[in-house]
Design a protein that fits this description.
eight-stranded antiparallel beta barrel, alpha+beta, 17 helices, 53% helix, 17% strand
């Protein structure tokens, strides 16, 4: 079973391999009372990647290492600069399935092969405080790198690593760095040993194309199918605009929307490992990314051809539904439990909490296993490949080459008008199921308008950012109303089950009445809230 360790470290350049790598007296670092020499460890690490280095491109590293006190398989996932989550698994001859799954969104069907071997002599020192508590580990690594695939070079260098102790204060690393800099030691230009090894052992001339083992037959077929699907759909329209380079600031309407599309595609891919690890809020965040992407396709049909994006939107809707299989029921149960907790004890009669738990458990149709199966499935992996293909060759329409101030603003205003129409319809209806449905439709449209305004903000600035806030406020208000609707529906079900079991249903009636009052409060607040939003207007 793999386990996780948060790693916070900094790397520094040492003198050429074979030379001395003196460290300054680190007892001068504030807070350090002693430097303990832990000796030299001989480390042997083989790094794995696809033939076209997809993991390295995404700043991920996967290695099998022996020697030292943490022999085994290590997968390092970037969190932020200098911070990585290291997922560990026991030694084995082949890549552990758990770790392969965590990089599935990156490698798809490609094979993981050995790419680099690093032999390191690690001279370790522990920095401790007056009580002997470890503050950081400092190591001087003399490294020999051998290229195993994609070349046959080798390289040697020396580097210094400073790794913060578990639960340590990151500010301590600044104190150590200040001392190192005074000694003339500077930060490493490479993000990792693997990155430096790949750079230093890269072939001088590009290899000839024709026989790269970059992907399996299944993946090549899937990519070809995705490319054909996008290409065939694109024939339905004349593409008059060319995409701007992804690494340059966007200037056109198409450039701005594609930047947002790329960000959501990247979010889905990057959140995949977190969802598999059941990191809190990761499922919700991936679900939001899928919804943002689908909404963008629908809102900006004048920029991205919808004959191409609509089928992709269908797949995104499917993924969002799979991600929400249990989440919606979980949220509803949380609302019911919170409402019950707010009741005075003398209003609670019978086994209400137990009944709620039974009711909720019976309606949970999904599982972790189901979600993981979805993420490992062909439909999901094909969707990722389709998104890659769409981003690489976007189906831009003629308006994509125009100024964003006109094209994007017009699309956002169109969405805003739809919200206005739906809110107006809801306000004209009397309280009841029809108004509930109208307010729910308005909420969904407000969410779409919010996402459109988010995509537009880099191009349109403050007015668009203000609209994001307005739509978020409206979405929250209407969401509270929808929560009340769902809570009342659930309470009717639970009360019926309790009554049939011979239990007192009084408490469910009290909860129903309170939920009804909350809905009425939202409906009373909506006219004023909407009037304030209308006064501000769209972009």
């Amino acid at each position: 079973m793999a386990d996780t360790k948060r790693e916070i470290e900094r790397k520094y350049e040492g003198p050429p391999a074979g030379g001395d790598a003196p460290l300054p007296d680190l007892t001068d670092v504030p807070g350090v009372s002693g430097v303990i020499d832990k000796g030299v460890a001989e480390l042997d690490a083989t790094y794995y990647d696809t033939a076209d280095q997809r993991l390295a491109t995404a700043s991920l590293t996967l290695r099998r290492r022996t020697g030292g006190d943490d022999a085994g398989w290590h997968l390092k996932l970037p969190v932020s600069e200098g911070v990585r989550d290291e997922i560990r698994a026991p030694l084995s001859d082949t890549v552990p399935e758990d770790l392969t799954a965590l990089v599935r969104s990156r490698i798809r069907e490609a094979e993981l092969v050995p790419v680099v071997r690093l032999l390191s002599a690690r001279d370790v020192r522990h920095l401790v405080d007056a009580s002997g508590t470890l503050l950081a580990e400092v190591s001087v690594d003399r490294v020999h790198a051998e290229r195993l695939s994609g070349g046959a070079g080798s390289a040697e260098w020396t580097e210094i690593e400073v790794e913060l102790a578990d639960d340590g204060d990151p500010a301590f690393l600044d104190k150590v760095e200040k001392k190192l800099r005074k000694a003339g030691i500077k930060r490493s230009a490479s993000a990792s040993k693997l990155a430096k090894a790949l750079d230093d052992t890269a072939p001088r001339k590009p290899e000839k194309a024709g026989k790269p083992e970059q992907a399996s037959k299944a993946e090549k077929a899937g990519k070809a199918a995705a490319t054909d699907k996008v290409a065939d759909a694109s024939k339905a329209t004349t593409t008059a605009a060319k995409p701007e380079p992804p690494d340059s600031p966007p200037h056109t309407a198409g450039g701005h929307i594609l930047t947002y599309v790329r960000a959501q595609r990247d979010a889905i891919v990057e959140l995949d490992p977190a969802v598999r690890r059941d990191v809190p809020d990761s499922v919700h965040r991936m679900r939001v990314a899928t919804r943002r992407l689908r909404s963008t396709f629908r809102s900006f049909g004048k920029i991205l051809d919808r004959t191409v994006t609509d089928p992709v939107g269908v797949e995104l809707k499917w993924l969002a539904a799979e991600l929400g299989v249990d989440r919606d029921q979980e949220v509803l149960t949380e609302h019911l439990t919170a409402a019950l907790d707010d009741l005075p004890s003398d209003l609670v009669t019978g086994p209400v909490q137990a009944r709620l738990n039974t009711w909720s458990g019976a309606r949970r149709s999904g599982s972790r296993q189901r979600l993981i199966a979805v993420l490992d499935g062909k439909r999901y992996l094909d969707l990722l490949t389709t998104l890659d293909t769409l981003v690489a060759g976007p189906p831009l329409r003629e308006a994509a080459s125009k100024k964003p101030e006109k094209v994007i603003a017009k699309a956002v205003r169109k969405d805003f008008k739809k919200v206005a129409d739906l809110v107006g319809e809801a306000l004209e209806l009397p309280p009841g199921s029809e108004r509930d449905l109208a307010m729910h439709d308005a909420r969904k449209k407000a969410k779409r308008t919010r996402y459109a305004a988010e995509a537009a903000t880099p191009a349109l600035g403050i007015p668009s950012a203000d609209l994001v806030k307005s739509m978020k406020s409206l979405q929250t208000l209407l969401g509270d109303h929808q929560d009340s609707v769902m809570v009342r529906e659930a309470l009717r079900e639970v009360a019926t089950e309790a009554h049939e079991a011979g239990e007192n249903a009084f408490t469910y009636g009290v909860l129903y009445g309170r939920a009804e009052q909350r809905a009425a409060a939202v409906e009373a607040a909506l006219p004023g809230e909407w009037e304030a939003i209308e006064d501000k207007g769209a972009v």
